[in-house]
Amino acid sequence: MNDNLEERLRDELRRGALPAAPDALHDRLSRLPAESHGSRFGGLLGGLRLAALASAAAVAIAFVLVVRSLPGPSAAGPSASLGSVATTRPSALPTLGPTSGPTSGPSVEPSSRPSPSIAANCTPSFVLPATTSSVTPITDVRVGAHPGYDRIVFEFAGSGRPQLTVEQKLGPFVADASGQTIKVAGNAFLSLKLFDASGYPTYTGPGAFSPGYPNLVALVNAGDYEGYVTWIAGLRDINSICYSVSTLTGPTRIVIDIVDPGPNPS
Predict the structure, then answer these.
(1) Where do the H-state alpha helices sit in 15-77?
(2) Pairing of strands 136-146, 197-198
(3) What distance lies between CA 143 and its chain's CA centroid?
(4) 169-210, pLDDT tens digit by residue?
(5) CA atoms of 189 and 145, how far apart (whole Å)
(6) 103 Cβ partners below 8 Å, 6+ apart?
(7) How far from chain centre, in Å, is Cα 35?
(8) CA Rg value for the chain
(9) 99 phi and psi, to 5 degrees?
(10) Cβ neighbourhood burial of 222 (10 Å; 0-12, 13-18, 19+)
(11) What SS3 string covers 58-107?
(12) N or C, which end of the chain is more exposed by having fewer CB within 10 Å?
């Protein structure tokens, strides 16, 4: 019977089941008084052997339970060794904030800035100082209309800009050097003179504009001579010769915004 019990314990231990050794041992020991001295001695040895087996089984089962309670290896990496603690690295979070610096490319004239009528200059003349002593090439001249004002833009090569002098003028006008009379449409006029500037050969655009805007009706080149470049702005409203001068960079520009007084006079 001891051999059968031992074999059963071994079989159950191999299968990982909890052996019934303690109950069998208790049952076997309870019958020891009814057996002979030799049988008692043999039973005692068998009981000790069963106790040893039961103790080994209990240790093995406890070991299995502890191992099963440990965290398993990470599925993404190699198999972890017994008793090691699997660690995971948190994924990188997206970086908030700007990811690049100012972009370069063709400039877009602001069209959403408020009407300059509040800060407009209505004095007979205004001077914007130069930022360079070198002759500044003019690369472009543009006009545009926006809510509340009409715009003139002078664009330059490089980072420096020439001096700008704005003056209210009365016609007629003559071209620099040649002295020829220049016709400019409008009822009031602004002379826009750039000093230490040159449009030749960098400016290849038109020498006259006839936009017909609410207040700006004409812009005519009156000369490019000995560092002076002059344009005449013809305005519709003689009672509203107010303007605002500002500068922009990337590329370098001088901007003249002429106030729109309201509906065109009939």
Answers:
(1) 21-30, 37-69
(2) parallel
(3) 33
(4) 998 999 988 889 999 999 999 999 999 999 999 999 999 999
(5) 18
(6) none
(7) 92
(8) 50
(9) -115, -5
(10) buried
(11) HHHHHHHHHHHHCCCCCCCCCCCCCCCCCCCCCCCCCCCCCCCCCCCCCC
(12) C
Q: What angle do CA 170, 176, 182 make, to 5 degrees?
A: 50
Question: What's phi and psi for 81, nearest 5 deg?
Answer: -75, 160
Distance CA 43, CA 49 (A): 10
Global confidence as pTM: 0.56
* Maximum CA extent, the chain: 150
Query: Which amino acid type is present at position 156?
Result: F
Residue extents of the structural domains in the chain: 2-69, 125-259
Rounded Cα gap, residues 179 and 182, in angstroms: 9
* Residue ranges, the chain, pLDDT below 70: 1-10, 12-119, 263-266
Q: What is the pLDDT of residues 55-90, one digit of tens each?
A: 555 545 444 444 444 444 444 443 333 333 333 333
- Going by CATH, does the domain composed of 125-259 fall within 3.90.600.10? no
- Tokens in use for 95? 């970086």
Q: Are 145 and 212 in contact (CB under 8 A)?
A: no
Residue 99 CB partners (closer than 8 Å, separation 6+): none
Please give the structure tokens belonging to residue 62: 């406890």
